[in-house]
Amino acid sequence: MSEAGRLRIGIDLGGTKIAGIALAPDGTTRAETRVPTPRGDYAGTLAAIAGLVAALESEAGADGASVGIGMPGAVSRHNGLIKNANSVWLNGQPFAGDIAARLGRPVRVENDANCLAVSEAVDGAGAGAEIVWAVILGTGVGSGIALRGQALTGRNAIAGEWGHNPLPWPRDDERPGPACYCGRRGCIETWLSGPGLAADHLLRTGETRTGEEIVTAALAGEPGAAATMARYLDRLARGLAHVVNVLDPDVIVLGGGLSRIESVVTALPQRIAPHVFSDAFDTPVRASLHGDASGVRGAAWLWGPEA
């Protein structure tokens, strides 16, 4: 198979499942599958990925595909080992080298939020934009940056690690902020994740509800839930504006469960604007086009259109 016609395989290595996709050169899906993640089992994880790649190539009727892998955490520029992964059995392992050896070909490994950014920059909600900032709002909070369709990793492999910065312009009642698993307090993730939304609602109302239940109640007009969502949107707007003032992206793409709420997406630009250091703010804020498939598609596109 020529380079121009090469199949691209993407693997999204999550904490509970490993998803795989095979893309034709034009971005159409040739095959896709998923398996449970062998939690706590590093060797089992390598075997599961190798099995997925073989299955995808067989179903697509092509071998020698390029392989990209999106995962939590990052490959350390210092020693080549995995760091910062919440799938902790990967930390400290030479994952990129091990899976390349297992597959017998070069493999590109990238943070899963960066894969979201690449996917949406190539053929998603940020297609054609030079700088795409993709934000994940779900069980955790993270972000990735795509520059001209390619992941921006950074010198320390932490570009886009937005969730573990402090909430900008905190009010007195937001200090010092909730404790975060990283050892600090008041991280953006503690405020803007689904669990963070639920914790804020419990603190203010005494009600134990999931993020989804809070959103549903707010849309139905329940005052307590509506107030919780108003605080959430204000904090989200401040968090986004802080990065706009540094990165000035061409488009902001939202992924994760909370991005599916149209009222959240549409309300953000006017809430962000007062915090942006500019005479005008017209950066579009969009929900991801590919939704839950963005991560695995972005992993496939790590090799770029030239692969």
From TrEMBL:
SUPFAM superfamilies: Actin-like ATPase domain (SSF53067)
EC number: 2.7.1.4
InterPro entries recorded: ATPase_NBD (IPR043129), ROK (IPR000600), ROK_cs (IPR049874)
PANTHER family: D-ALLOSE KINASE-RELATED, ROK (REPRESSOR, ORF, KINASE) FAMILY
CDD domains: ASKHA_NBD_ROK_EcFRK-like
Keyword Kinase appears in the UniProt entry: yes
PROSITE patterns, per the entry: ROK
Keywords from the named record: Kinase, Transferase
A GO MF term: fructokinase activity
Organism name: Methylorubrum rhodinum
Claim: Transport is one of the keywords in the record: no
Protein name: Fructokinase
